[in-house]
Specification:
Elements (H helix, E strand, L loop, with lengths): L18 H8 L8 H4 L3 H9 L6 H17 L3 H13 L5 H17 L3 H14 L4 H13 L3 H14 L4 H44 L3 E3 L16 E2 L5 E9 L4 E9 L4 H6 L23 E6 L6 E4 L5 H5 L5 E3 L4 E7 L3 H10 L3
Parallel strand pairs: 1-7, 3-8
Antiparallel strand pairs: 2-3, 3-4, 5-6, 5-8
Helix pairs in contact: 4-5, 4-6, 5-6, 6-7, 6-8, 7-8, 8-9, 8-10, 9-10
GO molecular function: Hsp70 protein binding; Hsp90 protein binding
Family: Belongs to the TTC4 family.
Protein name: TPR_REGION domain-containing protein
């Protein structure tokens, strides 16, 4: 008996595409999972454009408004701003709608942290529709973030004239009032502190003038970070305590001593920063810490460029009485220290300076 032959199933041939063809096919909006995947595709953009091709400007503006609202919900504030801008540019005849578009753009700008633009948009909305409370509220919120308390308070008062019972504006008005009081207190505090500082400096300058210590107000301060907050002071016996900057020209290094009594000698001042037991890392050969007798100390004369040598046995008081001595307006004594043990540099130093 002849066996029956089973029909052979023929598998359908799978279409084959080049990588370029696959990319083009699967980029079509039909295969997109989100709107982001569709954006930029000609087919999607063509469909999207139909949404705004109405001859009715109000309809176009409304469509843009809905799109902006959609993006705000998704927290895509930049896109929301662009959408609301499209609605504004559609020039709707409905002025209430136009005011809403400005307000919504103001809200989106606020959420996008463009607070200045937010205030500007809300003011535009209020100008178009003075009864639009939402614009007042957003404007005040942005103004408070910008610390413009007086303007925020004024905006609250204007809005409450439109809606006296508005709880949000009432609450914001209190915040604006509190902020205004706080800012005014800060300004007054800074004003008093400045006046006190000026008074102290005036007393210091007068005291130094009586001692015939020259202050060159034309020279800029030293400007080093270590000086921040450090000032000359006077003790109970009216003795000066100087901040002193020590410069080592050979290495381009500095030391800063915040409080040096005028009764101390230059040698005692140097002992604070140059010790054989703990030499600075840049003094590998210990030229600056082996023996104080090897050190020479100079200050720059007020005449400019001229270096004046100071015996290290002199006190700071005697130093300030030297001819040509001066301090800049930050009232910091600046001393330059070189070592005779650094023979090459010392020779070069003597050749270059004008003593």
């Amino acid at each position: 008996m002849a066996s029956e032959t089973q029909p052979t199933e023929i598998e359908p041939r799978k279409p084959t595409f080049t990588p370029e063809e696959e990319k083009e096919i699967f980029s079509h909006p039909f295969f997109a999972k989100t709107t982001e995947d569709m954006e930029g595709h000609p087919a999607y953009e063509a469909l999207r454009a139909l949404k705004y091709e109405s001859e009715d400007p109000d309809a176009n503006a409304e469509a843009y408004k809905e799109e902006g609202n959609y993006y705000v919900k998704r927290k895509e504030y930049e896109k929301a701003v662009l959408a609301y801008s499209g609605g504004i540019n559609a020039e709707p005849l409905d002025k209430k709608l136009l005011a809403i578009l400005y307000t919504n753009r103001g809200i989106a700008n606020g959420l996008w942290k463009n607070y200045g633009s937010s205030v500007k948009d809300c003011k535009s909305a209020i100008k178009i529709n003075p009864t639009h409370i939402k614009a007042y509220i957003q404007a005040v919120k942005s103004l408070l973030i910008l610390s413009k308390a007086s303007e925020a308070l004024e905006m609250c008062e204007t809005g409450l004239q439109v809606d006296p019972e508005n709880a949000t504006l009432t609450e914001l008005k209190q915040k604006a009032s509190d902020l205004k009081a706080s800012l005014e207190a800060q300004i007054e505090k800074r004003k008093n502190e400045k006046a006190e500082q000026i008074g102290k400096l005036t007393n210091v300058f007068d005291n130094l003038k009586k001692r015939n210590i020259t202050i060159d107000f034309k020279q800029p301060p030293m400007g080093l970070p270590e000086h921040a907050g450090v000032q000359i002071s006077f003790d109970a016996m009216n003795l000066i305590h100087w901040p002193v900057l020590i410069v080592y020209p050979e290495f381009g290094q500095t030391d800063f001593i915040q409080d040096v009594g005028e009764f101390l000698t230059v040698r005692e001042c140097l002992k604070h920063v140059l010790t054989p037991e703990n030499p600075p890392p840049w003094d590998g050969e210990k030229n600056y810490t082996s023996d104080m007798k090897d050190l020479e100390v100079y200050f720059e004369s007020i005449e400019g460029g001229k270096m004046i040598k100071v015996p290290i046995a002199r006190t700071i008081t005697e130093l300030t009485r030297c001819s040509g001595f001066y301090v800049r307006r930050d009232l910091v004594i600046s001393l330059l220290v070189v070592s005779k043990r650094s023979k090459n540099f010392y020779k070069k130093w003597l050749e270059e300076i004008e003593v």
